[in-house]
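Subject: design request, 293 residues
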């Protein structure tokens, strides 16, 4: 029933979907003071802007881009795989993928909450198998659509539990790729506190553990949303440096790599995401003064 309801929406022109999404972003911003405060708070403390004028401009862009990221889920999930892949206009950095495949130790793709992260795994899965770490959405009615849209091509979904970790590890040991949202807040006991844009953020240790166990290559991937609904450009970059063995140092290096990617296109980062929350069962970092927005 949900598929039938959203299918017509998914086949609207992308420029119209993005225009509607931009308007939706502002609607949510005005109707949810908590959402608006978190967006402003996270953006302000990041200091990715030069002055007050550039901050105001970036905030307006951020609000609009957040709405686009929500509404574009429907074409990503409900259009045919061929149609979705046709929206990706260019790919820069595929040579890093080829080098990693030659290395034969597997690839860990890190795709932050930035741009259109749904299209990155589909693009790779049209060529090679990939296992993607998956957490059910808070809006349970979205889950059937999400599963329908993500389980395509050579994509395997791995749940965020021990079974999922085994699936990820198995894929890497076969020399295949996995996909992880590196800025997703892990559950208690599965992360450490490490700075992210100058503030302590509970950061997953999974990436470091998987690389240490397999020798996999870490690549950063980001599908930039082009203006006026012209599609997307996939950008793939190598990790600036290998992750240290120490968990805190590895988490810090991971966050620095994500920061570097965000600085390339800060308007398309999801600043409304509650990156600095304290998971249940985890003590707050002793130096933090932020509120759980």
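Subject: RE: design request

Done. Sequence follows.
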């Amino acid at each position: 029933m949900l598929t039938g309801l959203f299918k017509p929406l998914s086949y609207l022109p992308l420029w119209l979907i993005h225009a509607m999404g931009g308007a939706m972003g502002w609607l949510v911003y005005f109707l949810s003071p908590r959402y608006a405060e978190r967006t402003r708070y996270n953006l302000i403390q990041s200091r990715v802007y030069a002055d007050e004028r550039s901050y105001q401009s970036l905030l307006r862009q951020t609000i609009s881009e957040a709405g686009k990221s929500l509404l574009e889920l429907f074409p990503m999930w409900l259009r045919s795989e061929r149609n979705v892949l046709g929206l990706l206009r260019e790919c820069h950095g595929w040579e890093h993928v080829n080098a990693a495949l030659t290395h034969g130790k597997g690839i860990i793709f890190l795709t932050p909450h930035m741009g259109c992260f749904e299209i990155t795994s589909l693009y790779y899965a049209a060529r090679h198998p990939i296992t993607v770490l998956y957490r059910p959405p808070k809006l349970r009615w979205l889950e059937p659509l999400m599963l329908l849209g993500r389980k395509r091509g050579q994509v395997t979904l791995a749940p965020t539990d021990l079974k999922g970790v085994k699936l990820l590890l198995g894929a890497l040991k076969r020399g295949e790729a996995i996909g992880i949202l590196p800025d997703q807040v892990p559950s208690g006991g599965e992360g450490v506190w490490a700075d992210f844009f100058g503030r302590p953020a509970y950061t997953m240790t999974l990436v470091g553990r998987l690389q240490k166990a397999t020798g996999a290559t870490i690549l950063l991937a980001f599908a930039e949303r082009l203006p006026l609904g012209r599609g997307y450009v996939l950008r793939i970059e190598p990790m600036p440096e290998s992750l240290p063995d120490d968990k805190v140092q590895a988490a810090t290096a991971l966050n620095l790599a994500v920061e570097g990617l965000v600085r390339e296109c800060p308007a398309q980062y999801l600043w409304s995401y509650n990156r600095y929350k304290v998971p249940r069962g985890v003590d707050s970092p002793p130096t933090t003064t932020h509120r759980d927005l």
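The mean pLDDT is 92.
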